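Worked Example 4.2. Read the sequence first, then its structure tokens.
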Amino acid sequence: MATFDDGPVAVVRSALVEAGVGDTVRTFPAGVPTAAAAAQALECDLAAITNSLIFDLDGEPLLILASGAARVDTALVASRLGTGRIRRASPTFVLEHTGQEVGGVAPLGHPKRIRTLLDETLQAHRLLWAGAGDHHSMFSITYQDLLRLTGALELPVR
């Protein structure tokens, strides 16, 4: 089992293997800091890229796993959750709660479990790609495995 001292990508790899998904992490020396860059490097549809977006919900992190082709409607999400305003988290807040930097956040491998929402439109894709903990790494996963590993609530987010 990897620790946070081993680095975020090692933690993500370990989480994938322990969950029975296998190590599907790919590294790109030129980097994949955006969904568009990742889709180009992976030669896949932008909508199959799973953005891991951390928001601040009353001081607690909220992870929204959204299609790279979508913009999250935070007002819609807040109304579906029956909660107050959802705010964009600062880079410091994201790092504190995930152990990963903005632009490379993975949907798993965080110090503590984070409340997670999964964009239900992602299930249209046979294979999804998500950040693996840094700006250079992505991993592949099915929608059902992503749902299982994150314990996410499926919801329309746009």
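Now turn to a second chain, presented in exactly the same format:
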Amino acid sequence: MLELHQVSVNYGESPILRDIHLQVPSGQVVCLMGRNGVGKTTLMKSIMGLLKLRSGDIHFEGERVTHWRTSQRARAGFGYVPQGRGIFPYLTVYENLLMGFEAAENMGREEREAALEEVYSLFPVLKEMRHRVAGTLSGGQQQQLAFARVLIRRPKLLLLDEPTEGIQPSIMLEIEELILALRERGEMSILLVEQFLDFALNVGSYFYVMETGAIVLEGDAGNFDRAAAREYLAV
């Protein structure tokens, strides 16, 4: 599904990512972990085309997309839930959800209505609050809205940047259950950036750990070195 080959990224003259090799197989949940400031969000922005690569290549469904614009990637099936949620605080919940259709040019009216009802079934609180201004929602509700706004157009690849940051345990559990349900369906590939190792281990099928802009540890659920991962994630 998604493959990164020797991806390097600079901010100005400062190298941030160095020779990243990473794969997200079709229908799998791949977790990218590391402490704050090691380059995880930079990598996600690079995958979305928000940052330019210094070197390396990105392939999606076998096609080289390294130089595609962000809008092209979105139309091709990339979905991104950024760190900090990125909702539109002065629009209603319903209006935020409609914004999710912007990159779904091929969805007809009936398909859009069905997709809207589907996300309401996943997040019933959003249906109850559909006329509320999004900025008045709690942090957990805003996170659910950020999820729903991306899921509404049924992406092929879902990029989640620390979805558990700053939310209460009950919402964390709901997010965990949602990711597991999406993984069970097998219709979507997920790259999850996460700092909580236990959360990642509960939902992931393959794991990468970053340190100072490079991948330093990786493995699948059966052979991943959890003790070493805890050392890299320790503050």
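Notes for the reader: The chain has a mean pLDDT of 90. Residues 89-154 form one domain.
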